[in-house]
Automatic annotation (TrEMBL):
Protein name in the entry: Amino acid permease
Residues annotated as transmembrane: 29-49, 56-76, 88-109, 121-140, 146-167, 179-199, 219-238, 259-284, 304-327, 357-374, 380-398, 410-431, 437-455
Topology within the bilayer: Multi-pass membrane protein
Lineage top rank: taxon: Bacteria
Keyword terms, alphabetized: Membrane, Transmembrane, Transmembrane helix, Transport
Matching Gene3D superfamilies: Amino acid/polyamine transporter I
Keyword Transport assigned: yes
Subcellular location, principal: membrane
Length: 466
């Protein structure tokens, strides 16, 4: 078999030295998913989406949510069939072969690294005014691209979250659950204040920029699908649950509940928040605002509630970091087991956590957050995720045809159609991304192929066994 087509044997157990204790039940996984999904996306992307689609941003949310629903159903079936920590990377290795698995893993590295780094910089943006107010040097709160030296608050919050994950998976999951409840209560407060003032006149014209992506004179792509391609950022995060497969007490039940349940909860939250925002204020007054929810509340004369929303957001934002840092460390763990990273990183500490890989992951994302210019390339996270989601949809279809008799603790309804929906939807959203983002994605994957050809295909565990 050609090296690029080598497939990892189905259902191979993890080495004993890298066993992860099963400490998470479905409420922990549900909170992990909601915590990873509900973050900067809903707090900022309603404004960006309204700028791209107008009131039809409601339709953009629905389309992005429907595509994610197809991907979530595919993840739920595959994760219960193959409860491995590597998520889409592990499924692709077993189903589609080594080269596709490498591309998917390389794409997931892009997704998780940029999300963690972007959220950390976003958190730093809230914390920096408090620090500089007490004499902390401004140059240490911004990266070189903004004229500073290093973004220490971003590095600090990554270190705190990494420390929690090293301390214990169950303990960090408990804290995450508390913070998620605070976050949901905050968004419920916004809906409770804004929704009663709903004015249907704010929905007209409903689709001022059309449906398909159209680039205007200002160079900005607008339309329902252009907005959906960006809003997609606000939905993913449920895939982090599948990386906890080896730590779930009952993966055959808990993973499906966590993946599908978190997406349903977040879709409901998003639709309510988006409807409340659009109905409360004409979209032109908060379009492209960096803090649209707080702006809407202030415009309504609810300055006190706006401050509560802002403070709660800062407190709860680290749940996104926890979810994605958890996910990336588990993907790195499995890639280390497979020989693509040094095997020593896959060892589990006495506390039952992959501490070495968590620290390694934290260093990678801290460098990105602390010194690299991420504003221009943050949209790349969407590109990496769409590649992974499409691969999972393809894995679902292939396994339905190749091994229909295998037990499936969770079986996605209309499986082949769900897989096609995930592939087609992700492809459409991928092509709806800005041209610059697509070029960056091409460059990233070209680098990935060079790394694979020069290192990965010779160092992989399957290559050494051949």
């Amino acid at each position: 078999m050609a090296s690029w087509n080598r497939r990892k044997p189905f259902g191979v157990a993890a080495p004993a030295e890298s066993d992860l204790p099963r400490t998470l039940s479905w409420p922990h996984l549900l909170a992990l998913g909601v915590g990873a999904i509900v973050g900067t996306g809903i707090l900022t992307l309603i404004g960006v989406g309204a700028d791209r689609a107008g009131p039809a941003v409601l339709l953009s949310f629905a389309i992005a949510g429907a595509i994610c629903a197809c991907a979530a159903l595919a993840y739920a079936e595959l994760s219960t069939m193959m409860p491995a920590a590597g998520s889409a990377y592990a499924y692709s290795y077993a189903v589609l072969g080594e080269l596709v698995a490498w591309v998917v893993g390389w794409s997931l590295i892009l997704e998780y690294s940029l999300v963690v780094s972007t959220v950390a910089v976003g958190w730093s943006g809230y914390a920096a005014p408090l620090l500089t107010g007490i004499g902390f040097p401004v140059a240490l709160t911004q990266g070189p691209e903004l004229g500073g030296l290093i973004n220490l608050p971003a590095i600090f919050i990554i270190a705190v979250v990494a420390g929690l994950l090293c301390f214990g998976t169950r303990e960090s999951a408990r804290l995450n659950t508390i913070l998620v409840l605070i976050k949901i209560a905050t968004l419920a407060l916004f809906v409770g204040v804004a929704l009663p003032t709903f004015d249907a006149a704010n929905l007209h014209p409903f689709m001022p920029f059309g449906f398909a992506k159209e680039t205007g004179p200002d160079g900005v792509a607008r339309g329902v699908m252009a907005a959906a391609a960006i809003i997609f950022f606000a939905f993913y995060g449920f895939d982090a649950i599948s990386t906890a497969a080896e730590e779930a007490k009952r993966p055959e039940r808990d993973l499906a509940i966590g993946i599908i349940g978190s997406l349903l909860i977040c879709t409901l939250i998003y639709v309510l928040v988006a409807a409340a925002a659009i109905g409360a204020l004409p979209f032109t007054r908060f379009a492209d605002s960096p803090e649209p929810l707080a702006l809407i509340l202030r415009e309504m004369g609810q300055g006190g509630v706006a401050r509560i929303v802002a403070i709660a957001a800062v407190i709860a934002l680290p749940t996104v970091l926890l979810g994605f840092l958890f996910g990336q460390s588990r993907i790195f763990l499995v890639m280390a087991r497979d020989g693509f990273l040094p095997a020593g990183l896959a060892q589990v500490s006495k506390r039952g956590t992959p501490a070495r890989i968590v620290i390694f992951t934290a260093i990678v994302v801290a460098v990105i957050a602390g010194v690299l210019p991420i504003d221009e390339i943050a949209a790349l996270a969407n590109a990496g995720t769409l590649i992974a989601f499409a691969a999972v949809g393809l894995c679902l279809i292939v396994m339905r045809r190749r091994a229909p008799e295998l037990p499936r603790p969770f079986r996605a309804p209309l499986g082949v159609l769900v897989g096609i929906g995930a592939i087609a939807g992700c492809a459409y959203l991928f092509l709806s991304l800005p041209t610059k983002t697509l070029l960056w994605c091409l460059a990233w994957n070209a680098i990935g192929l060079i790394v694979y050809l020069a290192y990965g295909r010779h160092r992989s565990l399957l290559a050494r066994r051949a």
